[in-house]
């Protein structure tokens, strides 16, 4: 094992945390590794809303290019940032055991405004999924764009005259920056593959594929595959409010999926329970059912609006 595996990662604290997880798992098997930080387009432009940038893989593209150009051997991503169609010659090598999947609200003063139907709260998030679900529950609130890494967004929230901002639980807890003034949003359905970390490598790199296969977490891999298949079938990207969550309990897959209009006023949801052995194409069939119920027209409407 004299070969040194070069692990590509974005430079944010959270991305480095994720890369270190893969690094440690490889080291535990006796592999030699080194981290290679790489800037992504999503880290450089912190102003334009993600849905306006319109680029698939805004946070993964730079790492994919580094992988294809043989500057790195493995790229580590937050799985929810990865397009459902991987670039040619790049394959999914391992999915790590999933962390927390929920979203949370970091609030400035208190949460009493959530119970005041006439109060127009100012809430920040760059996610169209979070915006749509929030507006469905609180249609009178004003939503504001919030970009940047976790620490940047927390600083921005502190500086602005907002009531709160929405984050992923995993993002804050993994780097120990979750504020005390935060609450889990149990009613909010997460993004497909939220809370999961994936390692990808070149298709022809059998050395790295075998090295990563040893720490692939089968249940997380199955659950995220279902969620991403649901997303892919709905032809959703960063401009479409699509949520999905699958988990396995007693060899049964519990799946929930949702498609929303941008303002949250219209939505299609579906829940299914199937044996894990019969979960193949579960995401696709659930999405096709939503499309048949009117979801196809809503997706087309959202795309045309963009």
Automatic annotation (TrEMBL):
Q: Write the record's keywords in alphabetical order, separated by commas.
A: Porphyrin biosynthesis, Transferase
Pathway assigned in UniProt: Porphyrin-containing compound metabolism; protoporphyrin-IX biosynthesis; coproporphyrinogen-III from 5-aminolevulinate: step 2/4
Name the EC number(s).
2.5.1.61
Q: Which reaction does it catalyse?
A: 4 porphobilinogen + H2O = hydroxymethylbilane + 4 NH4(+)
The broad enzyme category this protein falls into is transferase
List the cofactors: dipyrromethane
- Where the record annotates domain Porphobilinogen deaminase C-terminal, the positions are 224-291
Q: Does the keyword Transferase apply?
A: yes
List, alphabetically, the Gene3D superfamilies matched: Periplasmic binding protein-like II, Porphobilinogen deaminase, C-terminal domain
| Residues in Porphobilinogen deaminase N-terminal domain copies | 5-208
Which branch of life, at top level? Bacteria
| Gene Ontology molecular function terms on file | hydroxymethylbilane synthase activity
Q: Which Pfam families match?
A: Porphobil_deam, Porphobil_deamC
> What do we know about how this protein assembles, alone or with others?
Monomer.
- Entry similarity comment: Belongs to the HMBS family.
The record describes the protein's role as: Tetrapolymerization of the monopyrrole PBG into the hydroxymethylbilane pre-uroporphyrinogen in several discrete steps.
Q: Which named protein is this?
A: Hydroxymethylbilane synthase
Naturally occurring in which organism (per UniProt): Chitinophaga oryzae
């Amino acid at each position: 094992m004299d070969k040194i595996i070069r692990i590509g990662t974005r430079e944010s604290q959270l991305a480095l945390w994720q890369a270190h997880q893969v690094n440690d798992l490889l080291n535990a098997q006796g592999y030699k590794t080194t981290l290679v930080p790489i800037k992504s387009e999503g880290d450089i432009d912190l102003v334009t809303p993600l849905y306006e940038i319109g680029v698939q893989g805004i946070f993964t593209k730079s790492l994919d290019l580094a992988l294809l150009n043989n500057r790195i051997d493995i790229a580590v991503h937050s799985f929810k940032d990865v397009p459902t169609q991987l670039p040619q010659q790049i394959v999914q090598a391992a999915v790590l055991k999933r962390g927390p999947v929920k979203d949370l609200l970091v609030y400035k003063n208190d949460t009493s405004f959530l119970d005041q139907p006439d109060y127009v709260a100012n809430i920040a998030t760059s996610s169209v999924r979070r915006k749509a679900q929030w507006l469905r529950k609180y249609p009178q609130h004003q939503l504001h764009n919030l970009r940047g890494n976790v620490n940047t967004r927390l600083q921005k929230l502190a500086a602005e005259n907002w009531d709160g901002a929405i984050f992923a639980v995993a993002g804050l807890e993994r780097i120990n920056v979750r504020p005390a003034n935060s609450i889990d949003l149990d009613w909010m359905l997460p993004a497909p593959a939220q809370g999961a970390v994936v390692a990808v490598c070149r298709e022809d790199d059998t050395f790295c594929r075998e090295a990563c296969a040893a720490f692939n977490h089968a249940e997380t891999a199955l659950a995220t595959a279902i969620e991403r298949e649901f997303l892919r079938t709905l032809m959703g990207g960063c401009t479409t409010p699509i949520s999905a969550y699958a988990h396995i309990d007693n060899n049964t897959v519990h799946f929930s999926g949702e498609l929303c209009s941008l303002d949250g006023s219209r939505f299609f949801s579906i829940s299914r329970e199937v044996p894990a052995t019969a979960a193949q194409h579960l995401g696709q069939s659930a999405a096709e059912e939503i499309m048949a119920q009117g979801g196809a027209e809503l997706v087309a409407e959202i795309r045309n609006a963009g």
